[in-house]
Design goal:
With 112 residues, the protein is an alpha+beta fold. The longest helix has 37 residues.
């Protein structure tokens, strides 16, 4: 299992998010990925791919001299679980705050 910090770091850069979206449904060679980002150097795209790979979000396959990248379903599942935990925790906190506020409103009415 990938550390939550590695997943969040990998997604902290907008271009890495865009790369992950690109390779989510099919495999792309690194050159084609780089061509989708003409404002970024090839080495910078390679660095982004390395961060995504080390976070377990993409896998690399070599075919001759080509490097092909595709999203790892297991990595995406870990990311989904991490975000679900944050979401569930946030909803629970929101529910508690709303209930607390409702209790305070209710107890204030009895004093009037």
């Amino acid at each position: 299992m990938t550390a939550p910090a590695a997943l969040l770091h990998a997604l902290g850069e907008p271009r890495r998010m865009a790369i992950l979206r690109l390779v989510r449904d099919r495999e792309y060679p690194s050159g084609e990925i780089a061509a989708r980002f003409p404002d970024v150097t090839g080495p910078a795209i390679s660095q982004h791919l390395r961060v995504l790979r080390e976070a377990g979000l993409v896998e690399e396959r070599r075919s001759g001299t080509r490097r092909l990248y595709r999203a790892r379903p297991e990595g995406l599942a870990e990311l989904r679980a991490l975000l679900r935990d944050f979401w569930d925790e946030g909803l629970a906190q929101l529910k508690d705050a709303a209930e607390d506020q409702q209790r305070r409103k209710g107890s204030g009415r009895g004093r009037q």
